[in-house]
Amino acid sequence: MELIALWRMFLRRWWLILLPAGVVAVLIAPELLAAFRGGGTGGGWTVTLNFSAALPTSGDEPTYEDAGYFPWLASEYVVNALADWVRTGSFAREVSAALTERGQQIEPGAIRAAVAADNARSVMQLYLSWPDGDQIGIIAQAMVDVLQQRSAAYFPQFAAHPIEVILLDEIAPAPAAPPVTDRFRPLLKVALGLAAGVALAVLAEYLDDSFRYRDEIEEALALPVLGEIPKYRGG
């Protein structure tokens, strides 16, 4: 009986259930469209750069059995060092200083939070995320310059033989997908509107003491219904 009562309530109060959700959907229509399309730059912008790095050899280093072994081994160590340096505060300060020279005032803390790095043997990957599409290219170029020009100041072992850092990609900012939470937030708002509509319908049903079905009368009065007068539908 409870399910039948709920179904009858829905048939009578469907407009009240859908009204809050409809109002919310109209108010957040741009957010809903962005969530269904899955595009936009709500997640900001990203740049991914790959670098190779090497310590130039003088020809006096031991080569073991392979003349190319030492340069490749040194390259792996250099890439590891640079990938670790990119995640430090000193690198962020150097990039901030380079940006200041370009007329961009960005705090080192913001830069450090936006950078990540990894390495695959002799290739380093640098990942930059930034909300401003106009600034991210400038920041990326400043990072490239710092990697190529300032490493010897922080690695004494490179002072006598400055390392060579080569950018393998073009700086090409790409829009980042918005976070999953942002994409589902509009749908959550509509769901809350539906919940509010259900609550209003239940409240209206509770306050309504009228009878609409014979079983409701029989249950309320404990008396059988002997006859019904149908609703007149004449012209």
Explain what you see:
With 235 residues, this protein is of the alpha+beta class. It folds into two domains: 79 residues, no CATH class; 131 residues, Bacterial polysaccharide co-polymerase-like. 54% of the residues lie in helices and 13% in strands. Strands 1, 2, 3, 4 and 5 form a five-stranded antiparallel β-sheet that branches. Helix 1 crosses helix 7, helix 2 packs across helix 7 and helix 4 crosses helix 5.
Describe the structure concisely.
Helices cover 54% and strands 13% of the residues.
- Kindly report how far apart the N and C termini lie: 36 Å
The CATH first-level class of the largest domain comes to Alpha Beta
CA-based shape: rod-shaped
Q: Major β-sheet, in short?
A: 5 strands, antiparallel
Helix content: 40-55%
Report the CATH topology name of the largest domain.
Bacterial polysaccharide co-polymerase-like
Strand content: 5-15%
Tell me, rounded to a whole number, the average pLDDT: 83
H/I helix tally: 8
- Structural category: alpha+beta
Number of strands: 5
CATH hierarchy: architecture of the largest domain: 2-Layer Sandwich
Give the SSE order as H and E letters: HHEHHHEEHEEHH
- How many structural domains does the protein architecture include? 2
Radius of gyration: 34 Å
Unreliable sequence segments: none
Task: Outline the fold blueprint.
Elements: H1 2-27, H2 29-37, E1 45-54, H3 69-86, H4 89-101, H5 108-114, E2 115-120, E3 123-130, H6 133-149, E4 164-167, E5 174-175, H7 180-207, H8 214-221
Antiparallel strand pairs: 1-3, 1-4, 1-5, 2-3
Helix pairs in contact: 1-7, 2-7, 4-5, 4-6
